[in-house]
Design goal:
- The protein is mainly alpha-helical and 168 residues long.
- It has a single domain, classed as Up-down Bundle (Four Helix Bundle (Hemerythrin (Met), subunit A)), CATH 1.20.120.
- It contains seven helices and two strands, in the order H-H-H-H-H-E-E-H-H.
- It has a two-stranded antiparallel ribbon with strand order 1-2.
- Helix 3 runs antiparallel to helix 6.
- The chain is globular, with a radius of gyration of 16 Å.
Length: 168
């Protein structure tokens, strides 16, 4: 059986990012219908020591773009992390999807053994491409995407598993 690192990465990130974008639409409609201050959701945390919703989306997109870039052997594009609205978060997701779509499949295929280094100083981590994708980037991506989903679900947004999984 052949493993395609491209198939295990870019389409997976795009599927969940598209789902998060659709979930953001439902969250925005919910706050408008219920006349809730959007900041109540955008800055909500599941627990005081956890990051708020906005950061969950920012970090999920960071892991998607960072992984795609590293697997393709290109520089990770910097984002400012300045989003403060549903529209700005949706734009960040769209920008991330566009970046992932710009990466040539041929540049990602074969990156299973590419040396990948993340962090700096004491936080430096060294991986092969496959280990980086399967044991680091995807788990972190799913953690933050799931936490964003959970924050909205916990706050009464009418979403379910199908909304999170999206279409594939």
């Amino acid at each position: 059986m052949t493993f395609s690192i491209h198939a295990a990465s870019i389409p997976v990130f795009k599927q969940i990012l598209n789902s998060l974008s659709a979930i953001l639409d439902k969250a925005e409609a919910h706050v408008q219908d219920k006349k809730i201050d959007p900041n109540a959701l955008l800055h909500y945390r599941l627990f005081p020591d956890m990051l708020p919703f906005v950061r969950q989306i920012q970090i999920a997109t960071d892991f998607a773009k960072g992984c795609g870039a590293r697997l393709a052997g290109v520089a990770v594009p910097p984002y400012e992390d300045s989003e403060q609205s549903f529209a700005e978060l949706k734009a960040r997701i769209a920008k991330t999807i566009a970046f992932l779509e710009s990466l040539p499949q041929a540049d990602i295929e074969g990156s299973e053994t590419r040396a990948i280094t993340t962090g700096s100083g004491e936080k430096t981590k060294h991986f092969t491409g496959q280990t980086y994708l399967l044991h680091y980037a995807l788990p972190h991506f799913y953690f933050h995407a799931t936490t964003a989903y959970d924050i909205l679900r916990h706050n009464g947004i009418d979403i379910g598993k199908k909304d999170f999984i999206g279409s594939y």
